From TrEMBL:
This is Putative pre-16S rRNA nuclease. Its EC number is 3.1.-.-. The lineage of its organism: Bacteria, Candidatus Yonathiibacteriota. Keywords: Cytoplasm, Hydrolase, Nuclease, Ribosome biogenesis. One of its GO terms (molecular function) is nuclease activity.
Amino acid sequence: MRYLGIDYGTKRVGVAVSDEGGTMAFPYAILDNSKGLVGEIKTICAHESVETIIIGESVDYKGKPNLVMKEADRFIAELKEVISIPVLSEREFLSTQQARFFQVHRKRVDDSAAAIILQSYLDRKHSKPILETL
C-alpha cells in the first residue's frame, strides 16, 4: 500500500510518498499553494498509485491547532470532495524545523517535512504495542 504525505503551508506544500510496502517515506515534490493544488495532488496520487493521504495536523506549543490549520482544514475538505481515497491527519510539531536541521544546505525543505510527517504515521502504524512484544 502506497501513502502520500502532505506538509501544508500557506505558500508551499510539501509532498512525500512511501514505498509500495508502506514502510519508508521519501520526499517527492514541493508545490505552490495555488488554485490548482488539489488537481496536482490528484494527479500525483493517480501516477503513484496512492491509496491513502496523510496530512500534517499542525499544532502550537500548547497542542492546539495553529493559524495555518484553518486553511488546511478547508484544503482537506476540498481534497476529500475531489479524491476518492482516505485522507487522514497525523499530529505534527515543527516538522519543517526538523527537516532544516538535517538539510542545512537546502533552501526549501517542505518535501522533507512531508516525509517526516509521513514517516511518523508509518512508524506508528507498524509499531506493535509493548504488551504484544512481551
